[in-house]
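call fold(seq) -> tokens
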Amino acid sequence: MIADRGIRIAERKERSLRVAETVMSDEDFRRRTFEFGIRVIRLVESLPNTDGARVIGKQLLRCATAVGANYRAAARVRSRADVIAKMGIVEEDCDESLYWLKILVDLRLISSSRSKNLRDEANEILSIVVASIETARRQIKQPARYS
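ret:
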């Protein structure tokens, strides 16, 4: 189990480096996280009207819509350390979204194929956020250069 987690972390880092090579403006990423939330809202509204689907749907709604909201907040913070902290929250919410999507699939409340695009988008967003955090951390460690 621990080795499996280590492999997943290594795969995520590799994916984040590949995705980070793609240049995306702040506005494009803001729009992308917003659209992710909208797509999740539509998915949750289509779930069956059962207790389990309602509870899981509310959890998914909360974390998936928080991805975009917290990314917007990260753009307004004052220090690089605050950016890292806020982006860490975005990372957690995006990863939690993936967790709830997997539960919906495993309970057969939605099909794997129906959630594939959302899961792919969440993984890409997660990779971009992780790469951004790593870049910000490296920049904090580097001394200021004056010309």
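The mean pLDDT is 88.
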